[in-house]
Design goal:
- The chain contains eight helices and 18 strands.
- The chain is an alpha+beta fold.
- The protein has a domain of 210 residues: Clavaminate synthase-like (Double-stranded beta-helix, 4-Layer Sandwich), CATH 3.60.130.10.
Amino acid sequence: MGAYYSQGGSVCRLISTNYLEVCISHIIKPIEANRPDFVGEVIGIDLTRTLTDTEVDAIHTGMDRFGVLVFHNQHLEDEQQIAFSRQLGKLEEATGDIMSEKDRRLSMELNDISNLDKHGELLPRDDRRRLFGLGNLLWHSDSSFKDIPAKYSLLSARKIPGAGGNTEFADMRAAYDALEAKTKSEVHDLICAHSQIFSRGILGFDDFTDAERAKWAPVRQRLVRRHPKTGRLSLYLSSHAGGIEGWPIPEARSFLRDLNEHATKREFVYAHVWRPWDIVMWDNRVTMHRARPFDPQEVRDMRRTTLTNEVSSLEQGPI
């Protein structure tokens, strides 16, 4: 049955080498047996209540190993989601969208990842907010367009469409490991420019105000990051990345496109099929993700809390 030991005052057991070291009250297991270190399912933790220090530590440890954690059947109200997220770190405000204050239906601590207006009605197909939100269909890392980007994202599925609308995650650690030695050397110290103006432009969206263009002026991010706990290197890619310092734009974009194609090969990607009240957490430092299409006449109501990384990627680069 495995060896027992003490952790934080609880009796714990190592269930198997394929499972994370866990307490009897909960386990974190890999969702796919062929990828034991990417995407874990958490069983036995109720996120609607205040977590113990042991549970908080287990979630951080699980994130360090898996990069993505899945929690099923978590019936969270908005304030419960915010409270749970705050137990893990400092939240960033939802300033990455184009909703005005009068149009916002959620608090500034929640990102409204939905196709609804503040009255709960479907946004028209040509609504500016909906068209901007289609950028979520591109591979990206949350808030990489901010000087201090995101650490964890925590997405709660409140209402999902009957089909489609899955979210895919790419393991940027495995993608880095699979690069040829020459490419690893080439990318090691590169700095990229990230902006939502660029990522939305890929889709032909250019309906920005002067204030929005100033707000989303390009920021500098490393192309390779070192995880502060595990020491693993990973690619830091995103649809927001539109240039490389010191490179001609066409050459930089061609190079980044090749890297993105490499990093999103099927062997690096997990597709999450949402169930109502799932919570999925991911580490933006070591993953990319994208939403998949669904019928725009169906509701997809997702609410995201986001932990700030607290320091720039320039301060957490490779050595």
